C-alpha cells in the first residue's frame, strides 16, 4: 500500500483500490441493538472490475486488456469452505463441477490463518495474507475496502449462480459450467441492466445477496482498511464480484453516534464527517465509487428507522416487538452520502391549515427551465427525474418531518410551514428536484452542526427551531440547496469543500428571499445584510486561523489525483479544528457572489441551471464549473476573468481575495453598511443610552427603539460587541427591549458573547442554557469564557462541559477540552 498514515495525523486516508474494482451496489441487512450499542449484520457488495468500467469509459488501452483476459481460473477447491451445503440440493442445471468442488473441502481456513478475528478485535494488525504468496510465484489480488472500528466476522464469495431464475441474465452458451467467470458474468449483467429495469435489478440484488456462499475469503484488517483476497485470484477480473461480509460495529466507532433524544429516549444516527460511513459498513469511500444501495434494518418496534432511500418506508412487523424497514436508492451516489437514523421519533403532521399559512401552495410562475431539458442527461444510466416530464414540474416533493415528542409543537409551528415554500423556491431557481422525496429529522442536542443534507433526508439541529422562522428557513434553504450542490453534483475531491458549501451558502439567500416572496428591493436589502454579516465572520476567521487552512483548493494542481490503485488522502480531513471553520462556506460564497454580480443575476442563474443539467449525477472539480461558466458568458463581461486568475485569487491563496478588495467588499465592512441606515441609528441610540450618566438613566424608557429583524439584531449586537464598556443597565435594557433570550440561536449567540465580555452575571443562566441546548454553536463560547481569566466564568465553562461532555460530539469534546484544560 502506497499510503502509510499515522492516524493521529490530520489527513484522512481513502484506501479503497477503486482503480481495480468498483462497487456498484450494496445490500445491507442490519439489526440495531440499543442495549449493546451495536449494529450487526451483513453487507453484500457487487463489483465491476477495472478493465470493465475503464472499457466503458472508452479507453482503448483497457479494452485491449479486457480482450486478452484469459486469466480466468477455476477457484481452488482446497480453500473453499461452504457452510450451507444443504442449500445446494435444490440446484438443478448443469452445475456438476460445482458440487464436486463442494466435496472434500474441509475447513482448512484456520490453519491457513484465516478469520483472524481474535487478533483484530484486540487491535493487533497482522499481515498473514503475505505468508503464502510465494507458493504461487505471484501475489494474489488484494481488494481493499475502507473500514475502521468494525469487527469483521466472515467474508465469503456469494454464489450468485445459485439464484433461481438468474440464468436469464446470461447467454445460454455460458451456462455449462459454474465458475468464477460465470458468476462474475452474472454480476456484470446485473449491474449493467438498463435503467428501466431498476425494480427487477433491485429484486435480483436482494436474491443474490441471500444466495449461498461458495467459499470463504481471506481477510485482514488494519486501522483504516479491510483487505480481502482469494488464493489464486491474481487479478481483479479473477476476483469474486459479489462478496458478503458479516460484521458488527463497535460502540466507539465514529461513524454513528449513540445517544438519547430530547425526550430522553435512545437513538443512533450517522455523523457524516470526518470518517463518513467506514465504521458503519466496509465500503469504498472515494467519491468515484458511486453506487446504489438498499438496506433492510431491524429494530425494536418502538423505533423509527429513517434512511437515505427513495421510498417512504413503513415498518413490517417481524415477530413480537420487532420490525423491519426497507429502503433503496436507484441513483448512484458516493457511499459517504448514505445516512441512517434510528430513534423513537414521531412523525409531525400539520395541526390544521389556516388560510394565511405559508403552507398554502402559491402559484409560482412557471420558470422557463421547466421542460426544456427533458430527455438528455450525461451521467451514467439511472432512472433520472430530469428525464421525467412530470417530475420536472413538481415544485414541492413529498416530505415528512420527524422529531422527538417534546418538539412536536414547535415543528408544527415553524418547520412544517416552511417546507413547501422553501422546496418550491428551490425549484423555481434551479428546476427539477433531483430526489423524489424528503424526510427531515430534528436530531439530538449533541449534533455538531446546524444541519446536514443527505439523499432524501436532512438533519436539522434543534437550535434552528428557536426564535422566529428566520434561522429555520435559511438553514432549511441551505440544506435543500445541497440536494443539487453536494449530492446531485458531488465534489470529486473532498478537499474542494467549497463546491458544496459555497454554493449552498450562496443559494440559501436566493431561495429564502423567493420563499418569503420578498419584493426585489427587500430581497436585495436582506441579501446585502447577510453579505455583511458573513464578511465580518470571514474577516474574524482569517485573523484567527492558520494560513494553510484558509485555502479552498489546498491540493492545487494535484486536486483530484489518486494513486494507481485509486487511494488518496484528504488533506486536513481529520483535523478537529476544521469542523469549526467556515472558510469554505464564506470564501466560496463570496466567490460566487462576485461572479453573480459580475454577470448579473439573470445570466448567472440561467447559467447555473444549464450547469445543473449538464453535471447532475456526476462528480466535478472546480475547473468544471469555472470553465463552463466562462465559456457561457459574453466576452465583454469577462475581460480579466480566467480560470487561472480565479484559481490564483480565490481558490489557491489564503486570506482575503484581492479581487474582493477591488470590489469594495472591504469597504462595505469597515464603514458600517450603508444599506441598513435604520440600524446605524439604533447603534447610535444604544451608545447614547450607554453614555448617559447614572441619575438620568431612569429616562431610558423614553428612547424608542425600532423593531429589528434577526439579521439586523445580530449586526447590532456585533457592533455593540466592539464597544469597550457597556454598563449593566444598558445590557439589561438591551435584553428587555429585544427579549434576547427568546431570539434565535444566532442572536442568542451574540447576546451570550456580550454577557461574557461584560461579565454580566445576572444573565449567566442564558450562557449556561446556550452551552447545553445549542451545542453546535456553543463551542466558540467556551473559548471566550476561558480567555477572560475570570474564575467564575471559567467555573461556568467547566461545569457546563461536565454536564454535556458525555453526549457531546467527539471533535467538539477535543476542541473544548483543549480550551479548558
Ligand atoms: Zn439525469
From TrEMBL:
GO terms for molecular function: metalloaminopeptidase activity; zinc ion binding. Residues 676-820 form the Peptidase M1 leukotriene A4 hydrolase/aminopeptidase C-terminal domain. It is found in: Nucleus, Nucleolus. Its main location: nucleus. Keywords: Aminopeptidase, Hydrolase, Metal-binding, Metalloprotease, Nucleus, Protease, Zinc. Its cofactor is Zn(2+). The keyword Kinase does not apply. SMART domains: Leuk-A4-hydro_C. It comes from the Eukaryota. GO terms for cellular component: nucleolus. GO terms for biological process: proteolysis. PANTHER family: AMINOPEPTIDASE O. Aminopeptidase which catalyzes the hydrolysis of amino acid residues from the N-terminus of peptide or protein substrates. Belongs to the peptidase M1 family. This is Aminopeptidase O. It comes from Heterocephalus glaber.
Amino acid at each position: 500500500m502506497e499510503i502509510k498514515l499515522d492516524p493521529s495525523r490530520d489527513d484522512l486516508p481513502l484506501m479503497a483500490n477503486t482503480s481495480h474494482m468498483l462497487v456498484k451496489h450494496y445490500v445491507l441487512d442490519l439489526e440495531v441493538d440499543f442495549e449493546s450499542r451495536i449494529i450487526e449484520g451483513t453487507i453484500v457488495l457487487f463489483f465491476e472490475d477495472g478493465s470493465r468500467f475503464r472499457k466503458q469509459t472508452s479507453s482503448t488501452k483497457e479494452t485491449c486488456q479486457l480482450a486478452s483476459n484469459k486469466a480466468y481460473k477455476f477457484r481452488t477447491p482446497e480453500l473453499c469452505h461452504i457452510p450451507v451445503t444443504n442449500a445446494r440440493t435444490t440446484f438443478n442445471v448443469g452445475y456438476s463441477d460445482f458440487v464436486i468442488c463442494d466435496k472434500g473441502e474441509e475447513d482448512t481456513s484456520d490453519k491457513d490463518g484465516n478469520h483472524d478475528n481474535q487478533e483484530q478485535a484486540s487491535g493487533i494488525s497482522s499481515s498473514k495474507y503475505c505468508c503464502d504468496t510465494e507458493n504461487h510465484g505471484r501475489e494474489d489480488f488484494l481488494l481493499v475496502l475502507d473500514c475502521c472500528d468494525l469487527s469483521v466476522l466472515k467474508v465469503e464469495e456469494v454464489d450468485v449462480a445459485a439464484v433461481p431464475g438468474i440464468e436469464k441474465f446470461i447467454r445460454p452458451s455460458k451456462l455449462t459450467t459454474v465458475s468464477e467467470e460465470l458468476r462474475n458474468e452474472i454480476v456484470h449483467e446485473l449491474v449493467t441492466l438498463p435503467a428501466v429495469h431498476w425494480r427487477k435489478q433491485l429484486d435480483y440484488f436482494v436474491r443474490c445477496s441471500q444466495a449461498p456462499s461458495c467459499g470463504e475469503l481471506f481477510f485482514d484488517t488494519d486501522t483504516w482498511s479491510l483487505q480481502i483476497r482469494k488464493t489464486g485470484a491474481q487479478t481483479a477480473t479473477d476476483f469474486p464480484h459479489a462478496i458478503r461480509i458479516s460484521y458488527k460495529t463497535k460502540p466507539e466507532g465514529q461513524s454513528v453516534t449513540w445517544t438519547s433524544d430530547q425526550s430522553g429516549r435512545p437513538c443512533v444516527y450517522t455523523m457524516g464527517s470526518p470518517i463518513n460511513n467506514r465504521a458503519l459498513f466496509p465500503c469504498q469511500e472515494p467519491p468515484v465509487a458511486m453506487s446504489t444501495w438498499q438496506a433492510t434494518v431491524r429494530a425494536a418496534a418502538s423505533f423509527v428507522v429513517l434512511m437515505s432511500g427513495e421510498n417512504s418506508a413503513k415498518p413490517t412487523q417481524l415477530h413480537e416487538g420487532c420490525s423491519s424497514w426497507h429502503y433503496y436508492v436507484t441513483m448512484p451516489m458516493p457511499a459517504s452520502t448514505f445516512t441512517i437514523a434510528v430513534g423513537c421519533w414521531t412523525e409531525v403532521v400539520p395541526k390544521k391549515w389556516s388560510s394565511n399559512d405559508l403552507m398554502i401552495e402559491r402559484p409560482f410562475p412557471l420558470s422557463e427551465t421547466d421542460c426544456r431539458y427533458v430527455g438528455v442527461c450525461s451521467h451514467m444510466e439511472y432512472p433520472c427525474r430530469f428525464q421525467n416530464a412530470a417530475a420536472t414540474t413538481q415544485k414541492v416533493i413529498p416530505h415528512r418531518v420527524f422529531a422527538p415528542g417534546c418538539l412536536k409543537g414547535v415543528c408544527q409551528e415553524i418547520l412544517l410551514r416552511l417546507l413547501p415554500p422553501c422546496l418550491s423556491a428551490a425549484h423555481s431557481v434551479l428546476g427539477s428536484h433531483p430526489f423524489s422525496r424528503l424526510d427531515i429529522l430534528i436530531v439530538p442536542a449533541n449534533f455538531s452542526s446546524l444541519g446536514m443534507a443527505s439523499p432524501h433526508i436532512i438533519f436539522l439541529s434543534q437550535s434552528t427551531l428557536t426564535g422566529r422562522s428566520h434561522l429555520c428557513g435559511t438553514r432549511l434553504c441551505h440544506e435543500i440547496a445541497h440536494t443539487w450542490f453536494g449530492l446531485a453534483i458531488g465534489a470529486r475531491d473532498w478537499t474542494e469543500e467549497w463546491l458544496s458549501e459555497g454554493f449552498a451558502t450562496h443559494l440559501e439567500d436566493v431561495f429564502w428571499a423567493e420563499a418569503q416572496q420578498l419584493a426585489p428591493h427587500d430581497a436585495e436589502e436582506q441579501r446585502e445584510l447577510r453579505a455583511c454579516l458573513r464578511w465580518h465572520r470571514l474577516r474574524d476567521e482569517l485573523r484567527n486561523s492558520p494560513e494553510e487552512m484558509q485555502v479552498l483548493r489546498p491540493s492545487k494542481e494535484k486536486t483530484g489525483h489518486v494513486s494507481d490503485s485509486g487511494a488518496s488522502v484528504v488533506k486536513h480531513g481529520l483535523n478537529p479544528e476544521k469542523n469549526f471553520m467556515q472558510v469554505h462556506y464564506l470564501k466560496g460564497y463570496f466567490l460566487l457572489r462576485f461572479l453573480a454580480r459580475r454577470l448579473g443575476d439573470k445570466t448567472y442563474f440561467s447559467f447555473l441551471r444549464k450547469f445543473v443539467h449538464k453535471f447532475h449525477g456526476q462528480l466535478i472539480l472546480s475547473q468544471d464549473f469555472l470553465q463552463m461558466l466562462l465559456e457561457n458568458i459574453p466576452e465583454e463581461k469577462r475581460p480579466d476573468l480566467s480560470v487561472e486568475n480565479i484559481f490564483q485569487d480565490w481558490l489557491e491563496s489564503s486570506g482575503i481575495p484581492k479581487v474582493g478588495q477591488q470590489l469594495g467588499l472591504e469597504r462595505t465592512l469597515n464603514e458600517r453598511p450603508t444599506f441598513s441606515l435604520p440600524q446605524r441609528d439604533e447603534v447610535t441610540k444604544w451608545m447614547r443610552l450607554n453614555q448617559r450618566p447614572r441619575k438620568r438613566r431612569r429616562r431610558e424608557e423614553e428612547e424608542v427603539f425600532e423593531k429589528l429583524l434577526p439579521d439586523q439584531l445580530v449586526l447590532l449586537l456585533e457592533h455593540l460587541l466592539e464597544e469597550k464598556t457597556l454598563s449593566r443597565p444598558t445590557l439589561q435594557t438591551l435584553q428587555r427591549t429585544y427579549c434576547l433570550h427568546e431570539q434565535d440561536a444566532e442572536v442568542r449567540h451574540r447576546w451570550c458573547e456580550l454577557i461574557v465580555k461584560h461579565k454580566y452575571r445576572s444573565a449567566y443562566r442564558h450562557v449556561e442554557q446556550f452551552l447545553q441546548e445549542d451545542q453546535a454553536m456553543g463551542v466558540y463560547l467556551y473559548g471566550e469564557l476561558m480567555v477572560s481569566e475570570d474564575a467564575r466564568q471559567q467555573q461556568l465553562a467547566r461545569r457546563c462541559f461536565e454536564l454535556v461532555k458525555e453526549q457531546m460530539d467527539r471533535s467538539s469534546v477535543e476542541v473544548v477540552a483543549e480550551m479548558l484544560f
